[in-house]
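Quick one: structure tokens for this chain, please?
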Amino acid sequence: MASRLNLAARKMFVRDLKDSCAAVSSVPGLKVWEWKNANNNSGSSCTTYSVVWIQGLVQEVCQDGFTLRDDTGSARVLITSALPPGCPTPSTGSYMMIVGELIEANPVPILSAMKIQDLSSDSALQKIWNLEVEDSRHYCIK
């Protein structure tokens, strides 16, 4: 049976999410949005995705989610009942990793979280994130 958890997560910057446009899903038996990056400046052909992976600092926490900011912009992250038990609770200023489905791209990207991880305890992870995203752009598999 098809599951959202079986979809590969694409490492991305928030600015890349803003440049995305919705397309028809090509995942048999699963209702998911498939997105295409409308402004791909990397020269890579890896522009189609359903699940994204972003990292950044929590700016604001509200009842249904939080705002996450990376070096390129801010995104809204919704916390739903589908989130696995044991995921950390975000707090302002913490450095978090989010894996989720992109729901809306503009004007502010909105993600429905599938996984949340607090990475605040390891500053190296924040320092290398930009390199990880760039690396995945150049070496990802279709």
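Residues 42-46 have pLDDT under 50 and may be disordered.
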